[in-house]
Model the fold of this input.
Amino acid sequence: MPLVDMKDMLGHAYREGYAVGAFDLVSLEFLEAILAGAEHQRAPVILSLAESHFEHYDFELAMAATVAAARRATVPVAIHLDHGASYEMAVRAINLGCNGVMVDASTLHFEDNIAATRAVTEMAHACGMPVEGELGYVAGVEGEDAEKHPGEVVYTSVEEARSYVERTGVDFLAVSIGTVHGRMRGAPRLDFERLANINATLGIPLVIHGGTGLTHEQYRSLIAHGVAKINYYTALADAAGDCIRGNAASDARSGYTGLMRGVRATIQAEVERMIELFGGAGQATAVLTACRRIVPVAHVIQYNVQDTDDAAVVRMMARGQEQLARIPGVTRVETGWAVQGELRYRCCWLIEFAHKDVIASYRDHPAHVAFANEFFRPIAGDRLSIDYQLTTSMPP
Ligand code: 13P
Done:
């Protein structure tokens, strides 16, 4: 299951001088194409889900497919929330299976950006997950995503970047040095001097948004100056659009599947082209060796109840499912009754954590403490609680 620690993944890219492609997906075609491209190039890859795209698909359903796809991949994969706009969305993303989140508070004033980002960083780190922050502003110019990023470009200040990273604790920083979201208009001009200063000052993996439309030389220079993650979407969407228009032109009566013919292969080809340009081709094995795996934990509680009836237990279970599922890092909450009547324990909780760090943060979380003390422990004195790492490949 090559879902790997994203901090390790980008640390490897940063040290070894290449960038991991973070490709935004908006459909199953994109998901399959991005992973097929990474497999074919034997490259690490980041599957990005941008909050601004959630109008095009159901985040929860897309995450189920994305997690399943990552689990069966043979190359190292990270699943990333792109441009998360709130603390609540960051929690939701982690609880649905993202193992990295971006908090985009870049349009806020500096101090407000720091406060919003720090809150997300504290939460995510307690779940064992890294965070990407953004300082400065990458505006949109033209193309599908441009209107999602209105306004003017604001370049990242080196001095602010130092203070921002120290005070927020972000693991990666998205910088604004002249790229734009969507299509480039005219020849792209990037401020490499600024980027070099930011890199020398921070020494952490840097991220470029607006990866579409740069020259080969520019991609190489970005990477040489500390960029370890390049976000890339518009060119994939445009290539898919061209393919669909071609299908429509060659057969005006095409239905859905006819219009979509070749779309996956088209996206895959563009993904592979960029992976090669970013230098990630052939890095899969080294990354798998260098990175910790993301291994979920099952928090299993078996218990018996006393001094209460089954209807009250059902109500307690429903309340727990509701309240515990909202705690950061909790990916699943199930309750159960023993099928056979005469076993040692009659009831259970199966609670899944995204990472072993969640064992401690969950235990101390006020929602867990309140539920356990008020509703669970008073009726379930007879219980057994064990945390299991859910893997067959790693010994304890
Ligand atoms: P492009 O759409 O310009 O490739 O940028 C993608 C991006 O930055 C997503 O966060």
In short: The two ends are 17 Å apart (CA to CA). The longest strand covers residues 77-84. The pocket of 1,3-dihydroxyacetonephosphate is lined by residues 24, 50, 82-83, 145, 181-182, 209-212, 231-234 (CB under 6 Å). Residues 69 and 264 are 15 Å apart (CA to CA).
